Amino acid sequence: MSTDLLSDPALAPFLTPTFTPSAYLDSTLPPLQPPTSLPTSRPIPSTAVPLSTLSTRATTLLSTLDVSTQRLLAQLQTITDEILRIAPRLGYEVDLLRSDAVALAEELDAMRVDVPEPDGLTRLQMLSRVRERVEEVVKVFGDAMDWRLEGEGDGDGNGDGEGNGMKRGQNPEEEIGYLIASGEVEKARERVGRLRLLAGVFEGTVEGPARMAVVEALEKKVEAERRKKGGELEEVVEKREMKKKDDMGGYFGLISRLTN
Q1: Going by fewer Cβ within 10 Å, which terminus of the chain is more open, N or C?
Q2: What's the number of CA atoms in the CB half-sphere (13 Å) around residue 31?
C-alpha cells in the first residue's frame, strides 16, 4: 500500500534528490501576468495568468497536496501501529530462534563426541601399520641377503641368489672400515648397529655365528677407535691448557721484571 501511495504522480517531484520548494512552485504554477497599468519592457510569457487565476490554481494545488499528506500520514500511522503490534511477538520469535540454535549447537557437540569411529577406518589404520611393518621386514631381510662376508665367492649360491632377485655383492665391513679411516666414528657405530640387526636374521642358521662374530669384531674396532679419538681430544685439551698456563706465566714474569 505504501508503494502505491509513493507512486502517485503528484508526489514524484518530492522524491527527487534535487527537490527545492521554489523550483517546484515555478514548474507547477504558471507565471503571473503583470497588471496592465504597469508598463514593462520585458516580454510577457504566453502562459501568464492574472493574479485571480494564479490564486485559484495555488489553492487547488495546496488542497491536493494536503489530501496526499493526510493519506501519507494515515498510512504511516497504520504502519507504526502494525510495527508496535508485532514487535513483542517478533522479539519472542527471535528469542525462540536463539534458544533453538543454542540447543542445536549443544546437540551437535554431543553427537560429535558420541559418534564412534567407523570400524572400517580402524581396520584401514591397522592395515597401514601392518604394511609399514611388512615393508620394514622386507627391507631388513633384503639387506641381510645382500650382506656378503669376506671370502664368499661367486659360486652356485650367488647364482641362486640372483635367481631369487637377491644381490650379494655388497660388503659392509669394507664400508665400516672406510668410515673409521675417514674419522666418521659415529656413522661407523650406527652402521655396526644396523649390522647387528641384520645378523639377527641369521640366528639359528649355519651363517649366524660367523656373522655375529663379524659384528662383535667391528664393534670392538669402532669402540677402540672411539676411545682413541677421545684420548686424542683429551690430549689436545691438556696441551691447550698447558700452553695457556705457560703464556700466562711468561706474561706475569715479564710484568714482574718490568716492575723490578
Answers
A1: C
A2: 9
| Phi-psi category of residue 167: left, alpha or beta, with phi > 0 → left and psi -120 to 50 → alpha | beta
Please give the helix or strand (H or E) that residue 241 lies within, else none. Answer: helix 208-259
Q: 131-171, pLDDT tens digit by residue? A: 898 888 888 888 888 887 766 554 444 444 443 333 444 57
**Cα–Cα distance, 174 to 188 (Å, whole number):** 11
DSSP annotation of 29: S
pLDDT digits (tens, 9 = 90+) for 68-99: 888 888 888 888 888 888 888 888 888 888 89
Cell numbers found for residue 117: 569411529
Work out the burial of residue 168: count CB atoms within 10 Å of its CB; fewer than 13 is exposed, 13-18 middle, 19 or more buried: middle
167 Cβ contact partners less than 8 Å away, ≥ 6 residues apart: 146, 161
Cα–Cα dist 73/79, whole Å: 10
Listed residue (4, 3, 9, 1) closest to 65, CA to CA: 9
> Which of 242, 240, 235 lies closest to 250, judged by CA?
242
Domain layout of the chain by residue ranges = 2-30+52-112, 130-259
In this structure, the dihedral spanned by the alpha carbons of residues 36, 41, 43 and 45, taken in order and rounded to 10 degrees, is -40
